[in-house]
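Annex B. Sample input.
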Amino acid sequence: IYISWLGREKLKLGVNNKEDYATLVGTDNWPAKINDIDIVVVKPKYVPDSFALVVRYVPRELDEDFVSNEIQRTIASADRIKRIHYSYQRRTDDYRFDVKDYSEHNAALQLGRIAIGHSWLSITKFYPGNRLTYCTRCWRISHLRNTCNAESKCRICLENLNSDIPHTCRNEPKCAQCDGKHHSLDSQCQVLKEYKDQLTEDVEVAIQKGLLQRFSPQEKSPLFEHREQDFPPLTASDNHSNKKWNTALPRTTIESNNLRASYTDKTIESINDNLATLIDSNKRLENKVDLVSSNMKTVILDI
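Annex B, continued. Sample output.
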């Protein structure tokens, strides 16, 4: 843990590992006073890139909202899910997202996979590209705020900011690099493009000299497991094999047709006999009911 001054009345507390950062951001157990002086603790509103993960090789036919819902269904603290735009055409998409919960972040990395739709996709760390060095005081590139001697300026219109007078921005963008009518860090700025190209060349030279190392995500290929039930042996074709279920094969000759017709006739005859028996039984039952009814009437009249 290190502490540094940020202006005259602010102290900046920093750590150099993700576990401590997650602990400090997640806790609310902060003192209200230091040396009898009231203090206010302001937590960062953003999530560092070190907590970002990437889902790779997502099929392009999947909708972005569907992918976001699938990720959040598995990783509850996932946030800021965005599709990564590449400068070249790809058959699949990659999605970047932040994971605020440290335990979920580690669990996702250890598993290395996530289910989206019917796909079992890989998860890797997010490796940011070459970042620009720019000043948040004057908004020029190639230096930082703590080494800048210029006055604080508005990020949009570049007018000087005075702590005694509230600033009202005109919302007219002005570039601190080329004085153009766009934001100072706009990717369309020609000065910024040249700076990025030079930065990329310098990084490549440093990598070739061994001063820097390039980290590339390694795709984890699943180990092949051979199971006998997955690839059962094929039985040889045998015309004289045993009959399945001990049943005779259907005949396709005239004899088989005659047998079917004879069986059908016998079935119809049996049905007719059963119907005749049922009709006769119903008639006898009706006669018995009539007899019982007449006896009951006779008894009533005698009373």
